[in-house]
Amino acid sequence: MIGKPLLLTYLYLLIYILLSSGVILYNKWVLSPKYFNFPFPITLTMIHMGFSGVVAFSLVRVFKVVSPVKMTFEIYATCVIPISAFFASSLWFGNTAYLHISVAFIQMLKALMPVATFLMAVVCGTDKLRCDVFLNMVLVSVGVVISSYGEIHFNVVGTAYQVTGIFAEALRLVLTQVLLQKKGLTLNPITSLYYIAPCSFVFLFVPWYLLEQPTMEVSQIQFNFWIFFSNAICALALNFSIFLVIGRTGAVTIRVAGVLKDWILIALSTVIFPESTITGLNIIGYAIALCGVVMYNYLKVKDVRASQPNAESIPERPSKDWRLEKKSSDVYVPNNSNNNNVGSNGGNITTSDFPVDEEAPLIPSSRLSHIGRTQLRATLPE
77-130 pLDDT, tens per residue? Predict the structure, then answer.
């Protein structure tokens, strides 16, 4: 008999997969000239960021569901602003790619995410160049090259946009680890949107004003309030679904769910968008890349477990859902005097252990800090 907690975990995973796939397919449908015909990716991304920022502001300042973190100007200027800039860039380039290449091919190119994250981590000094990981990265790259060679509707511009977006997202993940985690700052989905969405909106305004605004003619724009409202709702809901998944599962489950989502999305895209033709060489190349990704995931999870000697005492699936505490306890300052082992164990868990998705500026260190605080409280006398 399957227990209720396990059923809820599977339900949250299903919701995450559906929302993640839905946001991608919905964005493609809205942007594609063959369907809704709103070929303004920066505008669409600004709508998402503006809507998310308004909702987050209402929840924090009006309804006071959660309290804002103790954000200083120094942290905002050195952490939030650069992270928001690269987040806005990844969304801008990623959404622009929908205008030129198919959803299926985009998902195949996203197999490069571990490669980009690893390279950025090595450049920033948060990871070391290892032979086993490097060979996996070579395998992934070879698979993506083969898949690209087999793409019937290959487009250099669209591929360049997507790859640039991947590296921008990888740099955002590394910066999140370097800047925020080292300062002991964690953000839940609401507070992350509260700080990041408005800043990303401002960064997007500059390329919008220079690139899209001059070409936009009101008489030719097809605007449907309910289409854009529902699209923004889906993007916002994706953030909370990721939060629920992180709260109930571990890195292994999330990685498996991500691979399953990619296969489902590739299959669905060929049905919804008939022009997304998949060739045998596409499948072979993606399968090779996927083998490299699976091996990379195995090595990362193995490293995480090796860095946590007490990992067996940490439940994979908490029995209760997380609740957003209505207090400013989102700032976690590690105890450097008597509990250095707690902070050092957690420091080896990188942001690549958690979902990376469109429209989701979630700072994935929330689960780590939650566990760290729980362990820390357990070591302190009552």
Answer: 999 999 999 999 999 999 999 999 999 999 999 999 999 999 999 998 888 888
Rounded to whole angstroms, the Cα distance separating 316 from 245 reads 11
The predicted pLDDT at position 294 comes to: 86
What's residue 298's pLDDT?
Answer: 83
Is the dihedral angle over the CA atoms 252, 256, 262, 264 positive or is it negative?
negative
Q: What is the pLDDT of residue 1?
A: 57
**Would you say 265 and 318 are in contact if contact means Cβ atoms under 8 Å apart?**
no
